[in-house]
TrEMBL record:
CDD domains given in the database record: LMWP_ArsC (cd16345)
Stored InterPro entries: Ptyr_pPase (IPR023485), Ptyr_pPase_sf (IPR036196)
Top-rank taxon, per record: Bacteria
Organism from which the protein derives: Polynucleobacter yangtzensis
Keyword Nucleus: no
Record domain Phosphotyrosine protein phosphatase I: where: 4-142
Protein name as annotated: Protein-tyrosine-phosphatase
Amino acid sequence: MKLYNILFLCTHNSARSILGEALASTHPSGKLRGFSAGSTPGTSVNPIAADIAVELGMDRALLKSKSWDVFGEPNAPKMDFIVTVCDNAAGEVCPFWPGNPVTAHWGFPDPSRVQGTDIEKRAAFNEVMNGLKKRIDILAEMPLDKLDSMSLKNIHAQI
C-alpha cells in the first residue's frame, strides 16, 4: 500500500498544523504520513497541541515548529497533499511545491488565542482536533491516487 504524504500549513506551525500532522501520522488507516510547517514558524509548539499529539501517539521529540521552506528543498519528502489550516497561511504566497501536490484549505479558528480556564483552552484545541479528524477520516476513505484539489476542498464543505 502506498503511503501518502500530507503537509499541514499554518502561519506559526504551533497548534493547528501540528494537530493535523499528528492525526495523519497516527491515522488507523496507515495510508498517511503527516508533516507540518509554517510561513513564519514560532520558536516552539503550543504545549496543549503537543500534549494532544503525544496522546495520539506522536513522539514529543518529533514535534517542532519549522518553516515551510524546508519542504521546498530538493531533498525534502515529496508531498501528495498540502492543506492550509489557517486563513492567514491560505492567503500567503506559498513556495513552489515539487511534484505538483493536490492542495486545499481547511480553515479552523486558532485555539491558542482562546482566553479562559485551562478546561476552556483544551476544549478549543479538542474542537479543532475533532474537525481535522473528521476531514482526515474522509480523506483516508477516498481513492487517494485519483484525488484532485476540488475533491480535497470538498471534504471541508461536507462537514
